[in-house]
Every structure is written in structure tokens, then in C-alpha cells.
Amino acid sequence: MSLIQCPNCGKEIESTEKFCYYCGKGLQEQYVQTTSIADVKYTHDKSNKFLVVCSIISYIAAIIFIALGFHKMFVYSSGELLKKPVNAYVGGDAYNLIINANYATAYFALAIFCSIIGATFIISHLLIRARGE
User: Fold this and answer.
1) Domain ranges of the chain
2) Model confidence band, residue 101 (pLDDT cutoffs 50, 70, 90)
3) pTM of the full predicted structure?
């Protein structure tokens, strides 16, 4: 791709861009005439709100997965003494401990994944906000 200089600030940008990254000036008159600044700002605000909501949802999912993981680790009853079995799948406490540990590890991995997704949404939100100002 070729680089051109912005007519407003003089910095080098790609020739395919419609706006200068540095000063925000439109590079193609036809596009600038059909798009108003209010429309651009509205879509900018709407996308930022979407990113924040997605981030919050990701962190809530992470908290739920952490709670499920701890439930698998610490809530166990083998069903002895006429109690209803909780988190017991096979006969033998050691086997159930191994199974529950694997379930807990999977839930913790999902929580980490959701946290990373939430952080990605937050970073995207901050980058868009910094670029727009």
C-alpha cells in the first residue's frame, strides 16, 4: 500500500484511508459531505456502550464459572448414611475426587477465558475512546 500525506496535518497515512488517524480530517470530500459528525459520534457512542456491556457480561460469566468450580471442589457427599449424593458419580471417594477436580479445573479455565474476553472488550473500548478524542 502506498502512503500519502494528510493535507491538514502533513503526517503520512495509507492512501486507502478515508480519515486521517492523527487529526481526524476527512480525505475524500464525497464521503465527508454525505456523513455528518453527529452520525459518526452516535455510532461511536453506541459501539462503546456495546463493548462495555459485553465486558460486564463476560466478567459475570467468569464469576459464575468460578462459583461452579468451587462448588465442585468443596461440596461433596458420597451418599452414605441416607444422605442424597452430591457431586458423586461412581463408587469410591478417590474417583469422585479426581472427577470433581477435573470439573473444577474446566470451570476455572472457562473463567479465565471469560476474563480474557472481558479484558479484550475493555481494551477495545479504551482504544476506540482514545482514538476518537
Assistant:
1) 1-35, 36-132
2) very high
3) 0.61
